[in-house]
Amino acid sequence: MPKIEEAQPKYLQIAHFIRDQILRGDLRPGDEVPSERQLAASWSVSRPTAARSLLALSHQGLVEKRQGSGTYVRSLEVNRRARELYGRARQTGNIYTPGEYAVITSAGWLDAPEHVAAALSLGKDRKAVHRRRITNNESGPITLSTSWFAPDVGRLAPKLMDPDRIREGTLMYVEQMTGRQGSYAEDRMCARQATDEETADLSLRPSSAVLIVHHVVYDMQDQPLEFAEATYPPDRWAFEQGYPLA
After folding, report:
1. What is the pTM of this model?
2. Does 64 share its domain with 104?
3. Which residue range forms the structural domain that includes residue 66?
4. What is the pLDDT of residues 41-83, one digit of tens each?
5. DSSP three-state, residue 20
6. 169: left (phi over 0), alpha (psi -120 to 50) or beta
């Protein structure tokens, strides 16, 4: 078991260790995670600290507590597009594959919508930095997305206000400029009818259905780093998930 270090709160170090086991597949959906008592003993921490680590995992949507039974890994739904983009950027330094490109249609300071302000914990002053882009390949638009960042991130990462492309992707650039590392992400998805603006930008037929993904990236301190709202055309999205039949 890794030793507790002073750089991060103890409960976060425990939560991150278990989170990594889940994301690697060492702990699979339905598996029981160590109890408060087991964590307290193996990590040499107090029971309240162990309980707080399990609560952090629950808030991240990774585990669920079953009354009288224990804490178990939840079934995960992953936004594969986001995961693949991040992985490619970290491995190659380029966020897009050959043939893909993004056109930045708007960048700079704006008053963030209420749901964005809530996701980024902006408070009363809802000024935030945004980057709106249309991503294309040889067959046309792939997705329409807008990334939002809190003011402190915007001040440290001035290229976010520049309409030129950031080759390594906004998240890697923000990590480099702020020193904050992306740790995990949460996605919320729904389908609805495209707006007039989305219909035009994505070259859709009127009244087309689109997939909306709200994507929040958290740093190593569990603080929101980026909020992104992406719109996918109907022929560009699907859910994929494997699960046991027994």
Report:
1. 0.65
2. no
3. 10-73
4. 999 999 999 999 998 888 777 888 888 889 999 865 444 456 5
5. helix
6. left
